[in-house]
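Long-time lurker. I teach an intro course on protein structure, and each term I like to show students one example going from raw sequence to a predicted 3D structure in token notation. This year I'd like something fresh instead of my usual example. Would anyone be willing to generate the tokens for the chain below so I can use it in lecture? Attribution to the forum is fine with me.
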Amino acid sequence: MKKLYNKFIVWLFMTGSKPDAIDRDNDGLVQEGTPYERKVTTVATPKKKAPAKKAPAKKAPVKKTVKKTTKKK
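-- Reply from a regular --
Happy to contribute to a lecture. Here you go:
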């Protein structure tokens, strides 16, 4: 129970340490300039998302026109 309480307190106050931090500048350090700065052995590159494909533009349906005829009297 004490362990669960400690986890809750850490979550509640969010100390700032990120266990899954990513090294974006590839220098081998994460969380630079903070008290939680540390070295990483493997540099993980973030996966790039594929650009979203745009849906084709929907066109308005073509209006049907009735040919008007004039009757001669």
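Some talking points for your students: The longest strand covers residues 29-30. Strands lie at 29-30, 38-39.
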